[in-house]
Amino acid sequence: MLNLRMNKLHGVIPPTFTKGCQLKNLNLNDNELEEPLTRSILNCTSLEVLDLGNNKIKGSFPHWLESLPQLQVLVLRSNQLHGSVHDSMSSASFSKIQIFDLSNNHLTGRLPVRYIKNFNAMANLTSMEVQRSTWGIDLSNNKFEGEISEVIGNLKSLKGLNLAHNNLNGSIPDSMGNLTNLEWLDLSSNQLVGTIPERLVDLTFLSVFNVSENQLQGQIPQGKQFGTFGNDSYEGNKGLCGFPVSKGCNNSEPPLSILPKEDGSESNITFGWKVVLIGYGCGAVFGLAMGYVVFQTGKPKWFVALVEDQHRKRQKPSKIGIQRAGRRRIQSLQMILKHFCYIISLYG
Length: 348
Prior knowledge:
Layout: E1 2-3, E2 10-11, E3 25-27, E4 32-33, E5 49-51, E6 58-60, E7 73-75, E8 80-84, E9 99-101, E10 106-110, H1 113-117, H2 127-132, E11 136-138, E12 143-147, E13 160-162, E14 167-169, E15 184-186, E16 193-194, E17 208-210, E18 215-219, E19 239-241, E20 259-260, E21 266-267, H3 273-298, H4 301-311, H5 319-347
Parallel strand pairs: 1-3, 2-4, 3-5, 5-7, 6-8, 7-9, 8-10, 9-11, 10-12, 11-13, 12-14, 13-15, 15-17, 16-18, 18-19
Antiparallel strand pairs: 20-21
Helix pairs in contact: 3-5
């Protein structure tokens, strides 16, 4: 084991790894090393851990590292790598990888699907082996594009997947529901569309989930671990609805009409004073009109007898007085109708 992390080493990694090198762990993380990697590392055929993260290593992705048969941990994060990650045609490349970290570089092109297919160690481990180790893929903060392959669902031992801050499009693969050991999943800041697969609810170990700043839509899955994720997991997706975002999913019913109160506040009442006034006015006019007709024509005997009994002792009015009284009643009825029409015009 050679651990020289967090020093101030600079320059290039010297090409001094000779044939028959028995080194298993090389850690040069957090230095100031530059220039492309030396191929002499291939002489260390027993190498299991190669951590060169947080340096200034330039050049393209060193695809020749796939020839290291025992390599389990490859960390090249936070360097200055660029270009695409060319997939290998060999089925043995990176077959024992447990941690694959290329984050914070300038890598482009599509995700390395062939490499992912070859991550056999992440697909064929027992539950006991999964618990003892950390299994993760971090390709975040690059410029990868294209869709996320369904192949990712084969890595059932995977505990962490970070593809955030790329240019990925398409939908979230339904096969991610197979990643039953997954503890953290970050797909934020891409261009993903479609819905969040309902099968992700079955990822009972999932404690970190982030799909913010995409173009997702539809209802957020509910239940189990999804009840623990906050609004920040979904920010920037205007089409998502349901808990915990504020937008509800039931928009088929028309909203209640909101009428202002006298004090400027709002009311939920679904009817207005116009309806009340129409009903009141119609009732009043109808009652007055019917009363006038009845008294001019039918004269109910019980009411007439009661009234006439009270007025017998009074002087009998002249015909002219009766005619004037009749005209006054008609004028009163007309006045009521005018007021009613005026009120309706105000609230119409």
